[in-house]
Amino acid sequence: MAERGPNKRAALIDALLARDEFAACWALQWCDLLRVKAEFPINLWPNAVQAYHRWLLEALRSNLPYDQFARALLTSSGSNFRVPPVNFYRALQGREPASIAAAVALTFMGARLDSWPAERRADMTTFFSRITYKPTAEWKEEIVCLNPAPADALPARLPDGTPVTIAPGTDPRRVFADWLIAPENPWFARNLVNRVWSWLLGRGIIHEPDDIRPDNPPANPELLAYLEREFVAGGYDLRRLFRLILTSRTYQQSSIPRSDDAAAAALTAFYPVRRLDAEVLVDALCAICGPGEAYSSAIPEPFTYIPDSQRSILLADGSITSPFLELFGRPARDTGLEAERNNRPTDGQLLHLLNSTHIQEKINRGTWLRELAQGTQGNARRMIRGIYVRILSREPTQPELTAAEKYVAAGKVNPKAAALDLVWALINTKEFLYRH
Amino acid sequence: MSDLPSGDVLTRRGALKLGLLGAAGLLLGPRWDTPARAAEPTVRARSVIQIWMWGGPSHLDTFDPKPEAGYDYCGPFSKPIATNVPGIRICELLPLLAQQADKYSIIRSMLHGSNGHETASYMTQTGRKPGRLVYPSAGAVVSVFKGYDHGYRGIAPPYVVLTTPQGRFDEAGFLGQRYRPFATGGDPNQPRFVVEGIVAEGILDEHQGARRELLHTLDTLGRAVPADPLFQQHDRCEQNAYDLMLGQAKKLFDPAEETAEMRDRYGRSTFGQSCLMARRLVESGVPYVTINYRGWDTHKQNFEVMRRQLPDLDRGMATLFSDLSERGLLDSTIVWWSGEFGRTPKIQWEAPWNGGRNHYGKCFSAVVGGGGFKGGAVVGSSDARGEEVADRPVYPQDLIGSVYELLGIDPEGPLPNPLGLDVRVLPAADESLGSGGRLKEIM
Fold first, then answer.
1. Residues A354, A358, A360, A364, Cα dihedral to 10°
2. In this predicted complex, what is the ipTM?
3. Closest CA relative to residue B49, chosen from B294, B356, B434, B330
4. Per-residue pLDDT tens over the stretch A342-392
5. Would you give the end-to-end CA distance of chain A in angstroms?
6. Which residues of B fall within a CB distance of 8 Å from A350?
7. Three-class DSSP category at B290
8. What's the burial of B68, exposed, middle or buried (CB within 10 Å: 0-12/13-18/19+)?
9. Bridging pattern class, strands B47-53 and B333-339
10. For chain A, what are the domain ranges?
11. CB contact under 8 A, A207 and B234
């Protein structure tokens, strides 16, 4: 906070992008889109979930270029335990070619196949018609591969209308992937930069971010084209894209709108406030009050025990969950739609934040408050400042300090209860609950 | 739970203003509105109490006894008892329910064929077979048609689960968050029923008021951006939450508002007091209450478990029927008892099961009563050993469809949803799991 200097912000962004939590956050996002979940209705199974999650985490940590990332997911063959990206083809509610094609289009083209004409849908499906799944002697191990049965040359048509003939022995998925990740592909980079924009700024330039089609135009085509160009030119470098957006003036705007114009929101004329994601929120509460969340799965699973020190953003499996995560809109990971995550406030969430045993116990149990009280030796003002820094990462303003002091001094509750109330109040402020 | 301004029901414009609909919803817009139906169905029932037998209860040891099948099938329960309806017998450990048999009907020919908890739970609660989409459970569907969107203004949320969610799948399916059940948490059989969020341990109302004031004073960002729609929604939810905490909801959820005699009648157990709580909730107008009753996955030592648990089920459920009836609530309240499946009729005597029963989706029982369902009847039958449906198959969608019909929800009608999907309340014949037709014989 106290640091000064012209490059302070850029240096901080670089440092944050290099942290493991960056990879954890975006792996979480990808696990939502890729439906990483052991149980019904995806049935990826626990071992495969762990393998897949670790692969995604490592890909993001090592900044695997996005074209290679997509290619690995689309063209890998092998065991779901040993070749984790093959799980892309397993994390589906249906395994027939049409369902696979729909998942590919949604994930990498931001397109909903059911809005395409039947003929184009069928064309797209052709590329995924030769995938086969084989069990092994190992429990819940499965091989995903190209069907080895002899096949004729396969006539197909790419989503842009180009006809191709796939020679016998060639994996049609490779033909599709080569087309998809080519620099001139109109969907590939667009889908990704639009999603990242939406993840960072709360609204896609094309919105919904996974509903790209001709009659859903971008709010700002120049911006979208610029980001696409930069992303392709930068070699599909994800960190570079994040840096580009995070250092932009747009991202740094205040959340206090300067205009009531309805178009202002679509054009990102102010920073849109959003509630923290469920996982981030509970991690923040644990970071402040001390760890200790209980997770469960409807199925007895080998990986349900989560050590206290692990953040919930690192939970691999969508089937392992907690009442808090459910209540605060963690996606079910059933469809891969961005809209599955719902961060809009509900009565139930407010009841939970304001009055649940879960939150109240977290507040009461934290040892940090006791230590702070000892350290400040009854000095109310220092105590208040300590609580502010701990929860909101800033000093209180003068009016805030006065109001808090008044609450303590009023003596309606004893000093310890007053401190707990202050913690409770700050946890319930919009400043804490919302990205702003 | 309502995140809408009080007053009018949700209109399309209101929904737009609140930004409830995603762009997909906007484009497919009109489907969100409930379309005018050809003929408005008659509404017979107002509320549903679902007794969910988590794990799948044995049909042979409850409502479909088979003493003639021999020891390897009926085990020690070889003397089913007569009920107050001539010709109907049920398990000997259900004497109180036997005295209420005129108030409910037994379906002995339920089937869906799945022996997996998840798939079976999904099918019995949604009436659908698993596919690309996760459909909402009956409770969530009822809260679409009978909840806040259609003028419900009750003290408690429209879809309540006592006490923990059933899990297995997301009960609200693609309907999302807003239609999830409100799970009370806590235990109504404890001296204080701590309803998550509503009844806090050790914080008095005056203290609540003082700290709420402190929160408002310190909500600096909220005051700087007063017009943000999301913040406004947050504030409305906060108001609603305090209405629940400080208003009548606290009283509604307090079992101590009932006499000790009444509490004893239901049985001093979590299940018994949950039945009592369910009655209080429907009395206040809640459209859908689920009692999630765990402990029926009796792989091992089935008979010991049944001896221990059936009396608890018997007392709570029998009292629920008699109490609802005495209060004149049974005519408008459907009670629905079922698990995700039954259990293998042939007993596994060998270790490690030691008289256990496995999952069984080919034939099982359900019970329905009240709200327009006739009592004192048996629908369908199973074969001599309870292994196959002998006649009149009833699939989950037949049962759920009948419940919807009595509630005045058109099972063939469109299901409004925030994703704008073009879907029906229950599946059409071509995507159905199978159907033996709705339960017309008892409606």
1. -160
2. 0.92
3. B330
4. 899 988 899 999 998 899 999 998 889 989 988 888 899 999 999 999 999
5. 17
6. 234, 237-238, 240-241
7. strand
8. exposed
9. parallel
10. 34-180, 188-266, 366-435
11. no
